């Protein structure tokens, strides 16, 4: 079992041995027009409306998910409604409410702020709708049936490990290494496990003097990046660089939680005229993958959005067929242990990029630019 907010219990992840949990379809209401059309034993009609509410387009993974959900749900026979909440929490609340009113049987949510949808999720459950948290946990609510994601704590572990390996590979003579830390947006439930996973690797090395966080900013609150916005990360890095690195102090590494913020950090370093530090990332965005192949950004994480969307649609199909969800973990969302299906994230550096991206329709062609 996993506790969402603390790192200690998160280290061991049982990816193998998926087990099924009941709960899918539980709490369904008295039925509506769509239910009436469901075949015997099925959870709901095979052509039901399925709502997908995605957050802002703060990274390429979300943009990819839109088409994948539209195409995949349509091919599976459903009627998809896929929307972004680009204006933030209020827009997402309205979207979810509208999906309930449209008679959706399942609502899949990548939350802007997972703690701000309680009222809408309660209404969804009251209407017999199944709620799936997609990529980001829905927190502080009893009204979520399943969480489908890449293992976020493990993402952080891989990032922390890559930072250390990168420092050894690229800055061998410079130890102890000067680093700075960047975390994601505080309203995204993923940001804490990303950071705690990374710190489970880095904190012991800070404590033993191998790493030196020159600014002294090591708490999540100090290093978080509101809205996952590149401008916010870049502004903070500009301030740190002019405040702590304007006297010849070298910056050797930056823990960045994703590619967008990694590029922001690299831009700040470039404007400050410093040498390129070892910078981590996540999402395998095209621009960062090119940067890695050019020897600039050190690492990224591959979380194949095609797999995450396909797994989510498989779970929707289980609900439609009246079957139990499949899960391989649980994550506590502050109120309950949510059955969770975790996919494994993959670390990518220049060393293994060609191998990891083989078969990816967007990234394999990028690899061929570097043959
Ligand atoms: C996702 C990351 C992404 C970030 C910003 C997180 O919730 O898991 O992959 O980089 O949001 O969009």
UniProtKB/TrEMBL annotation:
Q: Which CDD domains match?
A: PBP1_ChvE
Q: What keywords does the record list, in alphabetical order? A: Signal
Family annotation (SUPFAM superfamilies): Periplasmic binding protein-like I
Q: State where the protein is found.
A: Cell envelope
Single GO MF annotation: carbohydrate binding
Mainly resides where?
other
Q: Which InterPro entries match?
A: Bact_Solute-Bind_Prot2 (IPR050555), Peripla_BP_I (IPR028082), SBP_2_dom (IPR025997)
PANTHER family in the cross-refs: D-XYLOSE-BINDING PERIPLASMIC PROTEIN
For this entry, the protein name equals Sugar uptake ABC transporter periplasmic solute-binding protein
């Amino acid at each position: 079992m996993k506790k969402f907010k603390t790192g200690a219990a998160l280290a061991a992840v049982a990816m193998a041995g998926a087990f099924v949990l009941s709960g899918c379809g539980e709490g369904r209401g008295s039925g509506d027009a769509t239910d009436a059309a469901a075949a015997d034993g099925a959870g709901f009609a095979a052509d039901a409306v399925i709502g997908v509410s995605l957050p802002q387009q703060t990274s390429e993974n979300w943009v990819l998910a839109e088409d994948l959900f539209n195409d995949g749900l349509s091919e599976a026979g459903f009627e998809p409604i896929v929307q972004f909440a680009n204006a933030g929490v209020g827009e997402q609340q309205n979207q979810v409410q509208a999906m309930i009113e449209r008679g959706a049987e399942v609502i899949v949510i990548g939350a802007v702020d997972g703690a701000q949808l309680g009222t809408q999720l309660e209404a969804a459950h009251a209407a017999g709708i199944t709620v799936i948290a997609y990529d980001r946990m829905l927190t502080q609510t009893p009204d979520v049936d399943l969480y489908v994601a890449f293992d976020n704590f493990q993402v952080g572990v891989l990032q922390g490990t890559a930072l250390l390996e990168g420092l050894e590979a690229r800055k061998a003579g410079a130890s102890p290494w000067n680093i700075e830390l960047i975390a994601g947006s505080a309203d995204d439930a993923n940001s804490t496990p990303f950071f705690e996973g990374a710190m489970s690797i880095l904190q012991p090395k800070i404590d033993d003097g191998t790493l030196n966080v020159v600014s002294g900013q090591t708490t999540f609150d100090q290093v978080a990046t509101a809205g996952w916005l590149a401008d916010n990360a870049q502004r903070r890095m500009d301030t740190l660089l002019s405040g702590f690195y304007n006297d010849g102090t070298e910056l050797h590494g930056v823990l960045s939680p994703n590619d967008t913020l990694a590029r922001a950090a690299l831009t700040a370093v470039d404007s400050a005229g410093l040498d390129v530090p070892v910078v981590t990332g996540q999402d395998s965005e095209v621009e960062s993958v090119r940067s890695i192949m050019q020897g600039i950004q050190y690492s990224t994480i591959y979380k194949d959005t095609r797999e995450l969307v396909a797994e989510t649609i498989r779970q929707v199909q289980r609900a439609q067929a009246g079957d139990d969800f499949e899960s391989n973990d649980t994550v506590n969302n502050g109120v309950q242990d949510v059955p969770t299906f975790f996919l494994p994230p993959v670390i990518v550096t220049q060393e293994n990029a060609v191998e990891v991206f083989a078969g990816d329709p967007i990234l394999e062609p990028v690899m061929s630019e570097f043959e």
